[in-house]
């Protein structure tokens, strides 16, 4: 039966802890305590500079953090690590009220630049969603207009269904059908 493990994460090698708990290395930067004690020690400075260790290395400071930030920036924009790390970095690094030291200013400036880029992308995505919603609403109104011009009555349930549809291909198909339809059933798929 596996028990939860205590995981100690530190930037440097805690010799006293490693000796007191007779920790043995199991991989670079990771140590297990004596058998029977569910404890792991992770030494950030000893972790290999790989994608698998990236999120842990972002917990570091100074050179460790700068390297991890550079590794994160080098990844493609659509990787999951960026979607997880950026909001957390912004929250925890920019949320502090303490004034930064000169060394921290460089890292803070990089994180601020990421935050601004993250916000810019978020706003662009929100604008795109807004445009898409507007286009869908416009296409739904075009379907209703075509039905009205054809003299086809549209019950409230069908009107709500048309206005709620956001898929542009479906709306386009309905609009094309509405232009030549003789009944609502000829326009909407599987009309109940």
State the gist of this model.
With 192 residues, the protein is an alpha+beta fold. 56% of the residues lie in helices and 9% in strands. The protein has a four-stranded mixed beta sheet, with no helix packed on it.
Can you characterise this structure?
- This protein is an alpha+beta fold.
- Among the domains are: 1-47; 129-186, no CATH class.
- The protein has 7 helices and 4 strands.
- The protein has helices spanning 15-20, 54-57, 62-74, 80-94, 102-149, 156-164, 168-180, and strands at residues 6-10, 24-27, 30-32, 39-43.
- A 4-stranded mixed β-sheet has the order 1-4-3-2, with no helix packed on it.
- The longest helix is centred in the middle third of the chain and has 48 residues, at 102-149.
Gross morphology: elongated
Number of helices: 7
> What is the number of strand segments?
4
SS content category: alpha+beta
Major sheet summary line:
4 strands, mixed
Strand order of the largest sheet: 1-4-3-2
Flag low-confidence runs. 95-99
Query: What's the helix-strand series?
Result: EHEEEHHHHHH
Percent helix: 55-70%
Overall mean confidence score, pLDDT: 84
What is the radius of gyration?
28 Å
The N- to C-terminal Cα distance equals 54 Å
Share of residues in strands: 5-15%
